[in-house]
Design brief:
alpha/beta, 7-stranded mixed sheet, 19 helices, 39% helix
Length: 444
């Protein structure tokens, strides 16, 4: 496939759209194409092993005919990362964005990497029904819909471009975690007024940020945010954006699940689903009613966790037409560790430190602290988890080498013994599943 820009858009885009004007003047996130020579920016939801586990039941190989749309691709983080993972495959990535300045940066980044599997389209995702781009197996739409005048119109356009049994990876702002942001946005609107010049708006915003008292809600929660400290594009996008809105968990379920019949799988960056699980956010000494809360529907638990911690600034999740998560309990699947260089034997040694008693897992990246029970067979199972061996093969080895007072354990008994540890590690997206018939993707 040859990388090429689209010809003139079929739909003329107005330049008086304040959101489009912002991204023409300040492409976001700010990126230097030359950095592609030294690093690859990874985007959490777009990692193919994650995508396979949560959206394709662990059965997708991605090697033949896989089509990706990055809708509102901006300066190219998601586009470049997906295209790099699909390098050499029979696949196509379409980068769609209404900002020429942003699209040009993304294209230069791809050129530095020598990526030839990207098609560039300068247009709005709202025009998808007219662009005749075909259907896609995966759509990345990160940080886009919450900037539209009618987010549901954007969602409907995306769903119309979605192939059967496919998925959308989405990021939307969280209103609870951004409470201070929205108060600061309102403060800047009142103080700066209708000043049209972007440099003046930025300069005046910086004056206010330097002088707000410690009691200000944005200042109180400022450790949650970094964009305003990095560059002008980040400051403008966070605090001076002409149009943005946030959502609570319940609002997302009402809109996407109730309104459009979509199945949602949440995965916060570095924290995975654990950010939405109250029993993991309370730490090692939860209140007595924690077990009552764990019996609540996931939707209710997620809403509780969002209010409990107040740290979810963005909601990252997969949306599919029906649940298609790789199933735990099927012996034909391969368990593999992800995101960190941990091995099964190393984790088995960690459990062995407790000498048969629970050990405390303090996970730096996700921030969780949880007591881990060694179980009866967990150490033996972990010893054989290498990312290539199926549960069936692992269990056969455990049965062959374990000393049994009675009959050897069945697959069902071994799955049940390991379940609690799997659920913990899967909740932080460090232990995932892939069907044994699928080869692991090329590492990048």
């Amino acid at each position: 496939m040859t990388s090429h820009p689209n010809r003139k858009s079929r739909i003329l885009m107005t330049t008086n759209d304040p959101v489009q004007a912002q991204y023409e003047a300040l492409p976001y996130p700010a990126r230097d194409p030359g950095d592609e020579r030294v690093r690859l920016a990874r985007t959490w939801l777009d990692d193919l092993p994650m995508l396979n586990h949560y959206c394709f039941a662990g059965r997708r190989s991605f090697r033949s005919g896989f089509r990706v749309l990055v809708a509102g691709g901006g300066t190219g983080d998601g586009t470049v990362f997906v295209a790099e993972q699909l390098r050499g495959a029979d696949a196509e990535v379409v980068h769609l964005d209404f900002s020429r300045a942003s699209l040009d940066i993304a294209r230069r980044r791809a050129e530095v990497r020598g990526l030839a599997n990207i098609r560039w389209v300068h247009d709005s995702l709202l025009n998808l029904p007219r662009l005749a781009l075909g259907k896609f197996d995966y759509i990345n739409c990160s940080g886009v819909l919450h900037h539209l005048a009618d987010p549901d119109e954007g969602l409907r356009a995306l769903l119309g471009a979605l192939a059967d049994d496919s998925a959308i990876g989405m990021l939307l702002y969280g209103s609870v975690g951004r409470t201070g942001v929205y108060q600061m946005q309102e403060l800047l609107r009142l103080a700066i007024g209708d000043e049209p010049a972007i440099p003046v708006r930025i300069a005046e915003a910086k004056q206010i940020l330097q002088s707000v008292p410690r009691t200000n809600w944005f200042r109180r929660g400022e450790e949650l945010f970094s964009d305003h400290r990095e560059n002008d594009a980040g400051l403008f996008d966070l605090l001076l954006h002409p149009r943005d809105r946030g959502y609570t968990v319940e609002e997302l379920f009402a809109w996407l699940a109730d309104g459009h019949g979509l199945h949602l799988e949440f995965s916060d960056v570095q924290r995975g689903r654990s950010a939405y699980l109250p029993h993991l956010q309370w730490g090692p000494r939860p209140p007595a009613l924690v077990e009552k809360i764990r019996r609540l529907p996931p939707r209710r638990q997620y809403a509780i966790a969002e209010l409990l911690t107040g740290t979810i600034q963005t909601h990252s999740f997969y949306a599919t037409r029906g649940a298609r998560v790789a199933p735990y309990g099927d012996a034909t699947y391969v368990p593999f560790f992800f995101h960190e260089p941990i091995t099964g034997p190393e984790l088995a040694q960690f459990l062995a430190q407790g000498r048969g008693q629970p050990v405390m897992l303090d996970h730096v990246h996700s921030g969780i602290s949880a007591a881990v029970n060694p179980g009866r067979y967990r150490q033996a199972i972990l010893t054989h988890v290498d990312g290539f061996t199926t549960w069936h093969e692992i269990f056969e080895r455990v049965r062959a080498h374990a000393e049994h007072a009675g009959p050897p354990p069945t697959d069902a008994e071994l799955f049940e013994d390991f379940r609690g540890l799997y659920e913990l590690l899967n909740a932080i997206d460090r232990l995932l599943l892939r069907h044994g018939s699928v080869e692991p993707p090329r590492p990048v």
